[in-house]
């Protein structure tokens, strides 16, 4: 029986873990599918567009040819004028005149663009040009941004649980270390003696048998001896039968008699998991200094890895780029040479955005608490003092 019950317990444990992980996997998988569909659409629309050389492009080439023709052999005399003319001319140039759309809107390039859209980073170095691409971008962001925030909220619950448990365990360990340092030998011995005495008192004061408990009840004392003995005997038999009953698992009985009830119970638990999204982030209460330290370490790790494939970036530039990305500012002043590698960093971006979001949430709570204290302090100062008049 024991060997047969072990596989059944293992299956139940696997099912429990599966339904517990199912909401989180559902959100992440939905976001991945949404990103891949967007990459296919944008690569088809923007990558296959025709580049029409406009009249502005022809004027740009004519002006460039005119400036180069008027250059004299003596560069020192016309160097400043040449720089001003070239600078003004390049400001009128558009990037689409010199770039092939298929080179930008590859599948991975489009996937990188989709990630910058629903994460609200928006670097600005890649953007739709066609009218259909612009309309599709607005529609894509309309549904992608809420989905991304849902994933962030769900991941935030997991991260908040890990942070709160780690912080509580650290506090417990710290309190134990302080207690062991403060506790001297004599004090500990005295504490042990008092505990043993209290324990012995409790043991002596406890009733030893059920007969003493029954005799102490006033209702039993008033009855005659034979009725009292019969009642005590019946109560002892009822108690013996209650203890001898095997413990039944109600969930197993329902499952064996009616599997639909067990399925409904499982689905109700899954629905409860969906309803609990965002609750752990609200309950999180850790020092803001700890969150700042976590953000610094998290960005520093990425800043040390990123220059391995982005050779133009050093540690400081990579740190700046990761901070601008995780805070969703996205200036676009730092452009990546290999965004394909950065896509494999997408999980890092999601977790980092969640860490920054939790830090902002804690900072917001601290600011609200500070405002409440200031307002209450100012209100107490402005309240007029009550004067007591004699009767």
Please state the average pLDDT score: 76
CATH class of the domain at 16-51 and 100-179 and 271-381: Mainly Alpha
3D shape: elongated
Number of strands: 0
Considering the chains and any ligands shown, give keywords for the structure.
391 residues; mainly alpha; Helix Hairpins
Overall description:
The protein is mostly helical. It has a domain at 16-51 and 100-179 and 271-381: Helix Hairpins (Orthogonal Bundle). The protein contains 17 helices and no strands. It has helices at residues 2-47, 55-69, 75-91, 101-104, 107-118, 131-182, 185-205, 210-216, 218-222, 225-244, 250-257, 259-275, 279-283, 288-305, 315-326, 339-343, 346-382. The chain is elongated and about 125 Å long. The model is unreliable at 198-208 and 247-257 (pLDDT under 50).
Question: Secondary structure elements and their pairing?
Answer:
Layout: H1 2-47, H2 55-69, H3 75-91, H4 101-104, H5 107-118, H6 131-182, H7 185-205, H8 210-216, H9 218-222, H10 225-244, H11 250-257, H12 259-275, H13 279-283, H14 288-305, H15 315-326, H16 339-343, H17 346-382
């Amino acid at each position: 029986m024991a060997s047969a019950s072990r596989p059944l317990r293992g299956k139940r444990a696997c099912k429990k873990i599966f339904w517990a992980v199912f909401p989180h996997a559902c959100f992440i998988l939905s976001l991945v599918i949404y990103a891949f569909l967007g990459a296919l659409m944008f690569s088809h629309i923007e990558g296959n567009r025709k580049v029409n050389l406009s009249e502005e492009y022809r004027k740009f080439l004519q002006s460039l040819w005119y400036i180069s023709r008027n250059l004299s052999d003596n560069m020192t005399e016309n160097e400043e004028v040449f720089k001003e003319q070239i600078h003004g001319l390049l400001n009128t140039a558009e990037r689409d005149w010199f770039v092939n759309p298929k080179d930008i809107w590859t599948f991975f390039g489009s996937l990188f663009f989709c990630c910058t859209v629903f994460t609200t980073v928006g670097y600005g170095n890649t953007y739709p040009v066609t009218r259909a691409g612009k309309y599709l971008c607005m529609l894509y962001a309309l549904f992608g941004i809420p989905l991304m925030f849902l994933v962030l909220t769900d991941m935030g619950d997991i991260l908040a649980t890990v942070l709160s448990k780690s912080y509580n365990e650290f506090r417990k360990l710290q309190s134990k270390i302080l207690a062991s340092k403060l506790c001297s030998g004599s004090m500990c011995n005295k504490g042990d003696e008092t505990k043993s005495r209290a324990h012995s008192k409790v043991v002596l004061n406890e009733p030893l048998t059920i007969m003493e408990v029954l005799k102490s009840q006033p209702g039993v004392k008033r009855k005659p001896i034979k009725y009292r003995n019969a009642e005590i005997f019946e109560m002892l038999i009822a108690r013996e039968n209650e203890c001898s009953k095997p413990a039944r698992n109600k969930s197993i009985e329902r499952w064996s008699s009616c599997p639909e009830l067990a399925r409904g119970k499982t689905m109700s638990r899954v629905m409860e998991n969906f309803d609990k999204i965002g609750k752990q982030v609200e309950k999180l209460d850790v020092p803001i200094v700890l969150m700042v330290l976590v953000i610094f370490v998290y960005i520093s790790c990425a800043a040390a890895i990123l220059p391995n494939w982005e050779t133009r970036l050093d540690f400081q530039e990579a740190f700046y780029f990761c901070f601008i990305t995780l805070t969703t500012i996205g200036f676009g002043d730092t452009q990546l040479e290999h965004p394909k590698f950065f896509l494999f960093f997408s999980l890092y971006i999601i977790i980092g955005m969640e860490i920054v979001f939790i830090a902002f949430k804690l900072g917001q709570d601290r600011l609200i608490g500070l405002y409440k204290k200031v307002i209450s302090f100012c209100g107490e100062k402005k309240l007029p003092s009550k004067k007591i008049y004699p009767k």
